[in-house]
Amino acid sequence: MTTINKPKSAGRRKSGRRHPLSSVALIAIGLLFTGGAYAAFSTSTANAETSATSQQTIGEGKKLFAANCATCHGLAAQGTGSGPSLIGVGAASVDFQVGTGRMPLQMDGPQAQKKAVQFTDEQIATLAAYVSSLAPGPGLPDSNLLDAKGNSAKGAELFRINCAMCHNVAGAGGALTQGKFAPSLDGVTSKHIYEAMVTGPQSMPVFNDMNISPESKRDIITYLKYLENNPSPGGYALGSLGPVSEGLFLWIFGLGAIVALTVWITARSN
User: Fold this and answer.
1) Which of 159, 225, 238, 155 lies closest to 190 in space, CA to CA?
2) Complete DSSP assignment for 167-192
3) Pfam families annotated for this entry (predicted)?
4) Which one, 72, 145, 150, 250, has least CB within 10 Å?
5) Considering the domain boundaries, does residue 227 fall inside one?
6) Helix 121-134 / helix 90-99 crossing angle, nearest 10 deg
């Protein structure tokens, strides 16, 4: 009898055969590593470009600072007898002071006066970038906090509590001691109002986020913009300076009209 010997591999899966999904898995792993490497390279390139741009902006700001600000504030912004140190004041302070024309200072006095802006927006940004690079400080506010779409009623309450004693309840401004004054807030941009709150220019106190939250600052801005865009419900506002201006108006014009009428009647009687 002849015996037929079956191959040892018969009936069994060949040991060298790959799973049908192994090729798909290899392709997926390859794509994953390729994509990751590309993302890492792109990110590092973008960061390098951003860093280079920032350094260029800071360098331009430093040149502007040396030419226009160092006389009073020192070449390293350390301050001199003519001007305070700017280390740690942040970009917000620079943007407010230079963006409102208060700096460079035009003349010595109790406080810096608002005047025509001496620099372009781009130059102000470079100055702010340089000063903020010296030490941490208040940065520029987010645009969503400047849209004047907060709660105006809450903003009015916060303004009366924290600001009205100097700026007047209607933001018309008022006199302070030693020749200083709180300026009118009519026409001041939302950005500069916010920056003033976080930096405390002149005699103004600093309202950091622990005192007044960013959302509450937005509410105050909303209230001030409401006053700016809506006329006085009582007619002519007389500068919104309150009972003093109203009493003076009545004394001069009201009483004056009565006296003039009395004189006219007396003259007619004779």
Assistant:
1) 225
2) H-TTS--EE-STT-EEPP-TT--HHH
3) Cytochrom_C, Cytochrome_CBB3
4) 250
5) yes
6) 150
User: Mean pLDDT, to the nearest integer, of 143-152?
Assistant: 96
Pairing of strands 181-182, 174-175: antiparallel
Q: Is 111 annotated as a binding-site member?
A: no
Contact 132, 90 (CB under 8 A): yes
pLDDT in the model for residue 26:
62
- Residue 245 half-sphere exposure, CB side, CA atoms within 13 Å? 10
Q: What are phi and psi of 182, to 5 degrees?
A: -95, 120
Q: How many domains does the chain divide into?
A: 2
Instruction: Tell if the pTM clears 0.85, that is, is over it.
Output: no
Whether 126 and 57 have beta carbons less than 8 Å apart is answered as yes
Indicate if 238 and 149 belong to the same structural domain.
Answer: yes
Exposure string over 3-29, b if 16+ CB within 10 A, otherwise e: eeeeeeeeeeeeeeeeeeeeeeeeeee
73 marked as binding residue: yes
Q: 167: annotated binding-site residue?
A: yes
Task: Judge whether 146 and 92 are in contact, CB under 8 Å.
Answer: no
Sign of CA dihedral 218, 221, 223, 229: negative
57 is in an annotated binding site: no
User: Is the pLDDT at 234 greater than 50, yes or no?
Assistant: yes
Task: Judge if 177 and 235 occupy the same domain.
Answer: yes
- 135 within 8 A of 87, measured Cβ to Cβ: yes
The answer to whether residues 175 and 110 touch, using CB atoms and an 8 Å cutoff, is no
Q: Residue 117 belongs to what domain range? A: 37-137
For residue 148, say whether it is annotated as part of any ligand binding site. no
